[in-house]
Design goal:
The protein is mostly helical. It is built from three helices and no strands. It has one domain. Helix 2 runs antiparallel to helix 3. The longest helix has 22 residues.
């Protein structure tokens, strides 16, 4: 699994919500983009990855409300 897939726990979706799968896949891709470009500015990359991870958490909460 990629860094993004690991950070969003891509395979964890006990209720099999399709929206959760979409949110996690897109977030994983964004995190992977940051990881691939972290040589430009590691601090900014890490901040962005953390923010994406947190945003995904709230979006999943919304999708499953």
């Amino acid at each position: 699994m990629t860094i993004g897939e690991t950070r969003v726990r891509l395979t964890f979706n006990p209720e099999s919500h399709s929206a959760v799968d979409i949110i996690k896949r897109r977030t994983a891709d964004l995190i992977d983009f940051c990881e691939a470009n972290k040589d430009k500015d590691p601090r900014l990359a890490e901040l962005a990855m953390t923010a994406y991870e947190e945003a995904a958490m709230w979006a999943v909460k919304l999708a499953t409300a």
